[in-house]
Amino acid sequence: MILILDGNNIAFVCNTSQTLSSKKGFPTQAIYGFFESLYHYLDKFSHVDKVMIVFDGGHSIKRKKLYPAYKERDKIKDEEKIKQLHLQMPKIKEMLLCFPIDYFELHNTEADDVIAIFAQETKEQDVVIVSSDKDFYQLINEDVSIYNPVSIAKVRYLNSSNFKRVKGLRPCQWLDYRSMTGDSGDNIPGCFGVGEKTALSIMQKFGSYRAFRKAVMAGQYSPNKFERKAFDDLKSFELSKRLMDLKNTEMVDKPENISKNIKRGVLNKPKLKEIFKELDMREALNDIDSMLRLMPT
C-alpha cells in the first residue's frame, strides 16, 4: 500500500483544531498535530510500503491564466491563524526531511495535481490519499481510496465499494457534479444558481451533464427552473470542469518531470530531538521511535 498525504491540507486542519505554542511564543499546533497525525495514519494503515507527503508549490499558472479569479478570496476568516500556519510550515518541512519518507514540493505546482499523477501512475498497489479535499473523489477506483482527516466527517474512509451509498453518485460522476456546483474554496464558479440538490438530481437522473443537455435539446426532458439554470450555463460548467479535472494533466506544467522532483528524507534522530526540544514538544519525543518502527524501510 502507498500512503499519500496532502501536506497543506493536513497542516491546515491541525492548525485550526487547537492552539499551542512554545515557551517563547512560537505557534506549534500545526507542527504537533501534523506529526501526531502522521503517527496515527501509519498505525491505522498497516502494511504501508511507501509514504509520500505532497505540498503545494503555489497556484497553477495555467489555471490562473485560464481563470484569473482562481483561488482568489475576498476575506480570510481567521487571518491570525493563517499567519501562524505560514510560520510553522518551514519547520514541518525541515522535520520531514529527517524521516525516511518521500516528500514533494515544486514551484507553481499544486499538490492536487501531483497526488493525482502519482495515484494514477501507481500500478499493482493500493493507494490511500489522506485529505479532506473533495476534488480527490474523482480519483476513487478499485485501487485508490480517500481517508478524510476531519474528525466530524460522517464517513471518513471512502472507496469504490461505499462511495455511491454515501454520496449518491459513482466516483466517475463526481467531476460533472462538482462542475455544476462549483467550489467556493477555490473560487471556481460552477453553474450560476445551481446548488448541490439540483446537481445531484441531474446526475442521478441522467448519469452525466452531457446526457442531461442532450435529453433537453432533443425535447425528451423538460427541466424545472433550477435545472434550466444548469442547462443554460454551459460556459461556466466547461470552465469549472477544466479547472477541477485532476485526471487531465492539461493544467500541469511539464507533468512528465513530476517524478524527477521527489525528495527522500534521511533519518536524523538527533536533529529531530533538537527541534522538538526547541519547540518545547518534549512529549512528542517519546513518539519518534514508535513512529519510525511503523515506517516502511
TrEMBL record:
Residues 1-266 form the 5'-3' exonuclease domain. SUPFAM superfamilies: 5' to 3' exonuclease, C-terminal subdomain (SSF47807), PIN domain-like (SSF88723). CDD domains: H3TH_53EXO (cd09898), PIN_53EXO (cd09859). GO terms for biological process: DNA replication, Okazaki fragment processing. Pfam families: 5_3_exonuc, 5_3_exonuc_N. It comes from the Bacteria. One of its GO terms (molecular function) is 5'-flap endonuclease activity. Keywords: DNA-binding, Hydrolase, Nuclease. This is 5'-3' exonuclease domain-containing protein.
